[in-house]
Structures are given as structure tokens and as C-alpha cells.
């Protein structure tokens, strides 16, 4: 599909990560269908967290993350981070409105892209190669007291509603920095246009499932890992989100703002290869305009395809995007619209929150 005249090449893709064990909730930026996914993911990750404990706990009702500070990729556990009344640097974390509090952030027309060609037969081989690349890493092992630092660029398209008027708009490409402690109980977020320049603190009584320690405790057998995802999904899945799509999205969320041990990362890719409907895509572009190959799956309910983008040579994970590839009655966005795009610009282990790589603590 050719890009429309309004095509903006670099904010054109998006991301997640939501892990699979303790809990995590993603805040998908655009549209009613995204909220359904968000509710489903909150239930899934709460169930996974509960099942990983030796003692049972009461289920926690999913929380709608309408605030733009709480992007899905932050991997917040349901009802865990006490952000509702938090004020950091004079900035209160409040949100609302039918467009998730983003009305003032609209900067232009919806992001669009050329849709890459999907190959149902190409996914297993590509995922095997990606898995091998993920297992062969010299990345340092974090030590107690350190933090996982991830810098990225993100942008979104969504439906903006003003009275009885609705239009597809975009939020410009902007930078995002996240720090998370290894146990997932402490963190820091700086996001341009969303937080103050100093950022906001992230606190939790319960570790989220994307935390390093939680990821390190995941099974490395792909079958066992996938069964755990499906069990949680089956118990809590929103009926509007197909079962296999829920599993694919959950794995993708683990790959974004997280730092899985090499053997766990490899297992996640092998587990993804076992999900029906997963395809390879010959060309996809991350939020920085970097072209790569993708592993993807289409949600038949809303016609959107979630794509994990990898460098064509090194198979390094670059970012993620969600693209409308099929018109559906429930999705007002046009085919070719990019509802979210992301690009990882740096992933590292640092000694303290708010410390950037190369900086002496």
C-alpha cells in the first residue's frame, strides 16, 4: 500500500512489553479497542502474579490507565503503582476525557505507513534465527541494587473527540526514559511532554512482571512458558481479544521496556513461534525510521497488526509498531494508520535511578 500524502515516515510505528509472571498492565494509546486490550492484560498479569505465589491472594480489579503517563510499555502491575494521587515536581498525575487525556497533545494528522507483505510460512525460521541471536549475548548480568535503563522514541495515532466531532490525529515523536529496579518495586520515568523535565517516581509494593528478577524466574522451556501465558489468558481474557492475540501481545510486552536474561529472551521467541497466526513481514519501520524485518500477528477483531521489528542483519530488537491492516466495523481508523510506534535507542544496566549510561554515580 502506498503512503498517503500525509505520511510521516518516522513517528510511524509503535510498541509494550508486558511480562508474564508477577503482573503488568500496558496502556495502549489509541482507541476503544485498545482499552479492551488493556483491561485484558491487567487481568492476565494479575493472574500470573497470583499463580506465582505460594499463598493465594484476592483478585485485583483492572484499572483503566487513561493517563498518558502510564504507557502500556511501562509494565505497571494492576493496582500496584500508587500514581493516582502522586505529584512530582508540581505535576499531578491526572487524566481523563474520551481520548485518554491527550487532547492537548495532538500535533497533526494520523501517522500512516506502507504495509509490509506478510508470510505465514516465514515466521518459524525467522524466529529460530532471532532466538539464536538473543541467546548469544555478551550483555552484562545486573547486580543487586542496580537498575535497568531503557531509552526510546515513541509516537501514537488515536481518535480525538471534541463534542460531536471526531478525527484521527497523532502525538509527535518524543523521547522516553525509564529506570526500573531489578525487583520492580522502584523506578523513574522521564517522558517529553508527559512528565516534568525531572520526571516522576514509580513505586510499587508488588513487583511487575517485566522486572529483571521476575523475568529471570520464568521457565525457559518454550512449551511451559506458553502454557503459562495461555492459562492466565483463558482465566481472565477480555472476550473481545482473541486468545492467541492475547498471548502474542503478552510476549511482545516482555520484549520492550525490559531486560530479560538471554535464555529467557530466547525462550520467549520460541514460544511465540508456537502461536497460530504469527507471520513474518518483509519490511517494517520503527519510530526512528530504521527498516527491518518483523514478526507479527493480526487481531481479526480490530484489523490491527502488532509487529516486532528487528534489524535485518543482526536481528537485534529495534522496536514495535501497531498498524491497521484491515477495515473493521469497530475500528474507525483507516487502513495504513499506525496507532503506535516505538524505537529502542538504548538499553543498559546502571547503578542508580536517573543515572544514564556512561555517567559516574
Helix content: 10-25%
**Number of H/I helices:** 6
User: What overall geometry do the principal axes of the alpha carbons give?
Assistant: globular
Distance between the termini: 49 Å
Work out the number of β strands: 13
Percent of residues in beta strands: 25-35%
Q: What is the typical, i.e. mean, pLDDT?
A: 75
Q: What is the H/E order?
A: HEEEEHEEEEHHHHEEEEE
**Unreliable segments of 5+ consecutive residues:** 1-104
- Look at the helices and sheets and give the structural class: alpha+beta
Largest sheet: 11 strands, antiparallel
Q: What oligomeric arrangement do these chains adopt?
A: single chain
- The rounded Rg comes to 19 Å
Task: Give a short overview.
The chain is of the alpha+beta class. The protein is built from 6 helices and 13 strands.
Amino acid at each position: 500500500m502506498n503512503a498517503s500524502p500525509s505520511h510521516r515516515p518516522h513517528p510511524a510505528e509503535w510498541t509494550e512489553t508486558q511480562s508474564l509472571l508477577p503482573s503488568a498492565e500496558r496502556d495502549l494509546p489509541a482507541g476503544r479497542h485498545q482499552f479492551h486490550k488493556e483491561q485484558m492484560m491487567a487481568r492476565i498479569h494479575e493472574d500470573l502474579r497470583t499463580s506465582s505465589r505460594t499463598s493465594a491472594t484476592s483478585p485485583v480489579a483492572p484499572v483503566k490507565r487513561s493517563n498518558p503517563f502510564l504507557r502500556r510499555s511501562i509494565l505497571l502491575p494492576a493496582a500496584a503503582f500508587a500514581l493516582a494521587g502522586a505529584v512530582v515536581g508540581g505535576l499531578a498525575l491526572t487524566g481523563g476525557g474520551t481520548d485518554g487525556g491527550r487532547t492537548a497533545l495532538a500535533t497533526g494528522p494520523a501517522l500512516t505507513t506502507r504495509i509490509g507483505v506478510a508470510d505465514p510460512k516465514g515466521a518459524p525460521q525467522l524466529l529460530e534465527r532471532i532466538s539464536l541471536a538473543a541467546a548469544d549475548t555478551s550483555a552484562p548480568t545486573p547486580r543487586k541494587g542496580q537498575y535497568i535503563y531503557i531509552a526510546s522514541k515513541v509516537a501514537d495515532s488515536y481518535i480525538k473527540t471534541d463534542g460531536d466531532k471526531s478525527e484521527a490525529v497523532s502525538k509527535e515523536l518524543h523521547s522516553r526514559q525509564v529506570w526500573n529496579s531489578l525487583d520492580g518495586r522502584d523506578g523513574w520515568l522521564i517522558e517529553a511532554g508527559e512528565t516534568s523535565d525531572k520526571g516522576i517516581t514509580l513505586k510499587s509494593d508488588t513487583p511487575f512482571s517485566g522486572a529483571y528478577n521476575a523475568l529471570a524466574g520464568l521457565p525457559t522451556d518454550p512449551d511451559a512458558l506458553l502454557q503459562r501465558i495461555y492459562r492466565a489468558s483463558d482465566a481472565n481474557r477480555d472476550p473481545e481479544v482473541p486468545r492467541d492475540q492475547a498471548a502474542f501481545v503478552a510476549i511482545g510486552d516482555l520484549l520492550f521496556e525490559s531486560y530479560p536474561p538471554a535464555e529467557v529472551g530466547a525462550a520467549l521467541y520460541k514460544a511465540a513461534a508456537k502461536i497460530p497466526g504469527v507471520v513474518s513481514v518483509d519490511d517494517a519501520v520503527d519510530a526512528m525510521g530504521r527498516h527491518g524485518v518483523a514478526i507479527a500477528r493480526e487481531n481479526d477483531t480490530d484489523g490491527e497488526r502488532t509487529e516486532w521489528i528487528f534489524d535485518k542483519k543482526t536481528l537485534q530488537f529495534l522496536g514495535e509498531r501497531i498498524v491497521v491492516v484491515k477495515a473493521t466495523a469497530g475500528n474507525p481508523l483507516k487502513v495504513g494508520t499506525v496507532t503506535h510506534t516505538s524505537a529502542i535507542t538504548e538499553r543498559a544496566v546502571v547503578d542508580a535511578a536517573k543515572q544514564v549510561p556512561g555517567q559516574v554515580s
